[in-house]
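Posting for a labmate who doesn't have an account.
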Amino acid sequence: MHTISVIVPIYNNAKYLPKCLDSLLAQTYRDLEIILVNDGSTDGTFQICEAYRQKDSRIKVISQPNSGCSAARNRGIEMASGTYISYVDGDDWVEDNYFERLVSVHEETGSDVTITNFVRFEEETSVFHFYTRKEDSYVKEYKPEEWFQHMFGIENHSSCFVTAWGKLYNRKLFRLLRYPVGKIAEDDYTTFYTYLMSQKIAYINEPLYVYRTNQRSISGTNKLADRIPLASIEEAITMMTILGIDTTAAIALFKERLRLQKGSYLVDGRVVEYNHVSMMIELLEKNHKI
């Protein structure tokens, strides 16, 4: 069995962390290195981490001054020794067969990145939002150029395509790649690079990861314009163009983001950004590109 380095960035997750860690310890795939990165928590999170470390020798605990999720993940990458890397956020949890399923598909397909679908748990209402049914389960393999057409297709676009979580990565993909410290939506600047560096990508259309949303989550606390950055997709389009990968779907999503950004900037009164995005849209319309 190959070891999976499971990196868990944690900041003031004392209320949710036990459920997350219990789900990791319950995994049917046992060869795990669980790296808990305590990012300057002040709510008892560290004590919970230490209690679980004493309970299971597979758990390692690292504490650092509060520096953000990117810095926490990067610290975990530096500590990882497994063949594979996976991320689980400290307020989320996973099904018992999560890693067994990921590894099975990953090795059967010879993929560099394997992705699963997810369930969104809305804490305020205790409602689970499913994006797939058991009867719709399937596994599909993609070459990077095929995956980008699927990933960036507006109708097909899913949060699990962009996020760090919900995936199994070959650790070699992170030899140089790191998450940008200080940026909101840091996954959007990073995950596409793992696809570009891959020879093959596998997708499991099964709800194996549970993503918790609440008032602390990015979707509840940050501006729309920050959650859907233009700079990240501009960078992706640039790299895809240079590498000769079809950017049709990526450009379509970029145009959709322009429209969303324009509306968000107007609501927020961000005049400079609003005018700049408006100019870009007018330029595209003038040349019949939008």
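Reply:
Got it, the structure tokens are right above this. The chain has a mean pLDDT of 93.
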